[in-house]
Amino acid sequence: MNVPRASTSLTARSFVASGDSAPNARRSSITAVPDTCRGRGVLDGAFAVLDALAHADDGLGLTALACASGLAKTSTHRLAEQLVALGAVQCVEHRYYVGALIGRIGQRWQPDPLLRRAAQGPVHNLAVQASAMVSLRILHEGRLRLICATAARGQVHISDPADPESIARTATGRILYAAQHSGDIALPDCWTPGEWRRLRESVREIGATVADREDAFPGVCCVSAPVWWPSGTCAGAVTVVMLSSTLPPQLPDLVSNTSRRIGAALRQP
User: Fold this and answer.
1) Global pTM?
2) Which of 63, 106, 262, 265 could form a disulfide with 20 if both were Cys (CB 3.0 to 4.6 A apart)?
3) Backbone angles phi, psi at 116, to 5 degrees
């Protein structure tokens, strides 16, 4: 397909933009600078459009999309319509949204293939032992991302909370936030500074776990433990989810042992 030359390419930057009926539109983290390379300019422009739409759950009109992507309005319209033709963007009532093609591609994204490979076996074994749903998740761009999971027969999947405060109320979220180096990430205010400080200190202890007794969802209890890279940074959190108002007394030890087995696998060459 012959694609017209875009007038810009991109460098990293992020700030809030405003536009037609989209006051919360975020400017793409890829913004425009002059580029004499034809192919790169088109590709970067397309990704600027997609990146802007990825941050707009309610879609963007053309003016807001041009502002958020950092492209000229005519270039934005041309690229958006080409992406619509490919199925990468959809247009509904003159507003643009991420399309089905990008959704399918995104579902195949693996946040960390090495971590997934190390965790699959231990996560499956823990699900069998606990007769529950077990997962390993990371915190990426303010959201929980699934690395791998296994559910025992009869267990159901529970959707992840979307906002930082709801995430931080879960056992998984508390582990992942507390394991970050101080100053690397803003801590949600659902817990006091003193509570976060104590959790930061305790989460690095051998065998550390965090229990969620219906703090996030009624009738759901969880136990989570950190997994560590050999460098000492947090690789993720392994969590058991039980549809119950109580937790078996042996469950924290099972979760902690599983996290250590994953960590040992990460140290293997």
Assistant:
1) 0.68
2) 63
3) -60, -45
Residue 121, CA distances (Å) to 247, 251, 259 in order: 23, 18, 12
Architecture of domain 110-266: 2-Layer Sandwich (3.30)
Q: What average pLDDT does this structure show over 258-265?
A: 96
Residue 107 has pLDDT above 60, yes or no: yes
pLDDT band of 156, cuts 50, 70, 90: low
Q: What is the H or E stretch that residue 228 is in?
A: strand 221-228
Domains 9-106 and 110-266 share a fold: no
For residue 40, pLDDT beyond 90 = no
Report in angstroms the alpha-carbon separations of 8 from 2, 67, 264. 17, 14, 47
Is residue 76 within 8 A of residue 62, CB to CB? The reply is yes
User: What pLDDT sits at residue 27?
Assistant: 55
Distance between CA 180 and CA 163 in Å, rounded? 18
Mean pLDDT of the chain: 83
- 9-106 is classed in which CATH architecture? Orthogonal Bundle (1.10)
Q: What does the domain layout of the chain look like in residue ranges?
A: 9-106, 110-266
Helix (H) or strand (E) holding 161: none
> 128, 138, 123: which is closest to 172 by C-alpha?
138
Q: CB under 8 Å to 12, separation ≥6 — which residues?
A: 29, 30, 31
